[in-house]
Specification:
Elements lengths: L6 E4 L4 H13 L4 E4 L4 H10 L8 E4 L2 E4 L3 H11 L7
Parallel strand pairs: 1-2
Antiparallel strand pairs: 1-3, 3-4
Amino acid sequence: MSAEQVTVYSRPGCPFCMSLRAGLQRSGLEFTEVDIWQDPEAAGVVRSIADGNETVPTVVIGDWKAVNPSTREVVAAVTEHAPHLLPA
């Protein structure tokens, strides 16, 4: 089954989140960003992926999940799991 979106879990002031956001924007890849400080359910998702920690950025693309991935890793995951989401 193909993923429907790229979800980036983040929090304000996180330099790693800012770096990933900038890289994804440069790549042209569309993504949905969720602030875990504003969304307790999203914080729970991150804890379930990051061994109980609220480590961000955490990225989910369908069944693929990663904590603090690089832009290159995210684009590679989209290429493999959701190529229809790649920019034209």
